[in-house]
Structures
1.
Amino acid sequence: MTESPAVPAWGPDFAALERTDPEIARVVLAERDRLNAGLQLIASENFTSPAVLAALGSTLSNKYAEGYPGRRYYGGCEVVDEAETIGIERAKALFGAEHANLQPHSGASANQAVYGAFCAPGDTVLAMSLPHGGHLTHGAKVSFSGKWFDAVHYGVDAETEDIDYDQVRDLAREHRPKMIICGGSAIPRLIDFAAFREICDEVGAIMFVDAAHFIGLVAGKAIPSPVPYADVVTFTTHKVLRGPRGGMLVSKAEHAAALDKAVFPMMQGGPLMHAVAAKAVALKEAATPEYQQYARQVISNAQALVAELTAEGMRAVTGGTDTHLALLDLRGIGVTGAEAEARTGAARIVLNKNAIPNDPQPPRVASGIRVGTPSVTTQGMDEADMKQVASLIVRAVKDADGSQTAAVAAEVAELVAGKPAYATS
Ligand SMILES: *Cc1c(COP(=O)(O)O)cnc(C)c1O
């Protein structure tokens, strides 16, 4: 007689992972420990909540749900429909948007759908250049966006290092783009959405805001929203917004059908319903006063961090930040971005080298670093902690011979031990 198998647990069951695959279980724990052991200053990362992680680890992962709530290509979708409908309503309410789509698998997928909805191959788009802070999906040659579309790029003003709006207008008039994209991955300042709207109206272009980096600050009402101005706003859900890894878009009602069709079936197959449910959870969390306080603290922390770093000889691109991130030019202290990333990394301070506008170094070396405060703020750090974080960064960055690495790492360990990212038991 064969034994009937035990009924499996319906949700996250770490013991099952340890039994089935100790090798991967060890990796999962090691990554948790890596997060807890260091200072995570990558501007595009955050620590998502146990509630979001629970939705992500649920049986909603099993369901095929091609289509949209009430209009699916598969049976049995009545339950997952609820999760997606709740999420869509939360997104519309939180952002004051007429339409929302929670299905894009990632920020890049959401952007691909926008191109699919509004452009045909060969059409002209105008976007921020990658070396000035844009994104690969904004027309870089190595991306679908640069291969299949005719991308023209604006950059930052040489003096202010902020977006050169005169150049945007001039290029828009000259090239008459189908779509103008604003947003990027290394823009420390607020974007003038009204100015972009005016330029788009003048040349008849779609206004596409890629809010991947800063949408969490918008959700938390800490900075102005692009939603009233833009035709479509795409974003990732895993950066400041603190949700699961994924993408989302909100738009004007007039573009709803075109965008939904571009997400599915043009660019994607079945939605990741566990991720859609987790996005709904994150949107609920982001609508709370606690999250709004968090968003404001993220900015205060970034400003405190920049003030300390610039006092130590690093130069802040644009002179500072209005957001969660800052770009520091290290030429004044004679260190490259790559050296800084390696030296801080050795001391468990995780940040990334980053090109600065008009960088004389190639991207793999870079003259700058990018730092962001979403993660450290989630773990409860404040301006006083930023003072210490800055001093640890500076000691590591200036430590050419590595003689300080162990001492800095020990101080990092002490600092984060009091405010761990995740519980270990
Ligand atoms: C992070 C980011 C994306 C891409 O997100 P993925 O989820 O990594 O695909 C797109 N645009 C901008 C501006 C980003 O910063």
Note: Residues 154 and 171 are 8 Å apart (CA to CA).
2.
Amino acid sequence: MPCNEAFSERCAQVRAQYARVLEQVQTAAIRAGRHEDDVRLMAVSKTVDEPLMLAAMEAGATLFGENKVQELVRKRPQFPAETCEIHLIGHLQSNKATKAVETADLIQSVDSLKLAKELSRVCAIKHCAIDVLLEVNIGRDAAKFGFMPEELPEAAAEISQLEGIVTRGLMCVPPFCVNSSQTAKFFLNMYHLFLDNSTKKMDNRCMGTLPWDILSMGMSGDYEAAVAEGATIVRVGTAIFGSRV
Ligand SMILES: *Cc1c(COP(=O)(O)O)cnc(C)c1O
């Protein structure tokens, strides 16, 4: 670990930024009539070196997000499941499904039925289960991954029947909007999809016992808006780890 003044300043900066974002998340929750603990702050640590992740942990971080399986596999030994949770938040290719199941605590980026089936196949072989979120292409962006809103009812129902797949909720990356009320509208649409598509209603093998409890939305530029519209996880990278925030 580098041991110089500039580095310890960077660590102090990350600790301070994490604390500031957390406070804003909690304030936004209370303002929206929610409890301050209703929203979990994910520190998105893609491309971030391990010592800075440790600094975030010192400030209280218990949840990280990685977007590449390879990077997750590399970092996991230093950040075992007993110390923190790491979710995969980037597009996952089917050929990396095994590694993803082995290393991620939850896969937020399940964006196709094909991927869900592959994850299920892996879980069946390994006699394990994996928690997932379904990624929604809320902006109907042809360049983005995810289920279209109208595809969700059928996809959620089918995926909830797959062995080893525990569908915990939804995630999205809305299109960039200059106008914050447009972003808020995407978040509100997600909240309605989250309420309408609960797999609790769909899986009559274990009615009522399936957790459908995670709505993951909001990043550095819009996490307070996401909290106002019902996010239960916000995924913040730059505002925590950035050096020029
Ligand atoms: C990078 C990333 C984030 C964090 O973005 P920031 O703007 O840096 O906060 C959140 N979600 C996903 C899926 C990402 O890839």
Note: The pocket of pyridoxal-5'-phosphate is lined by residues 44, 46, 67, 89-90, 173, 219-220, 235-239 (CB under 6 Å).
